[in-house]
Design brief:
Length: 112
């Protein structure tokens, strides 16, 4: 059974930092990319960042480029999203996604 478990969300002031984690279990994902998405209240879910398990290539949405960094620890089957210089508009529930599977989400709230 595949499970994606996010953690690391919370409340932070604008300009602060958070690191999200997504621990994957239940199968190997060597030919896939792990994605982070987010959904703010009243808005559609949007893509944030991606990392390929094999090779570690990354890709970011323009809105987070230069502020967020996605990385992986293959030994722990875990992907991280380091979020710096956070803005109130980054407030959302953040989800990890791979191969059609989704985590339960973790809330990030950035106060102004």
């Amino acid at each position: 059974q595949v499970q994606l478990v996010e953690s690391g969300g919370g409340l932070v002031q604008a300009g602060g930092s958070l690191r999200l984690s997504c621990a994957a279990s239940g199968r190997t994902f060597s030919n896939y990319a792990m994605n982070w998405f987010r959904q703010a209240p009243g808005k559609e879910r949007e893509f944030v960042a991606r990392i390929w398990w094999a090779g570690g290539s990354t890709y970011y949405a323009d809105s987070v480029k230069g502020r967020f960094t996605i990385s992986r620890d293959a030994a722990k089957n875990t992907v991280y999203l380091q979020m710096n210089s956070l803005k109130p508009e980054d407030t959302a529930v953040y989800y990890c996604n791979i191969a059609g599977y989704w985590g339960q989400g973790t809330q990030v709230t950035v106060s102004s």
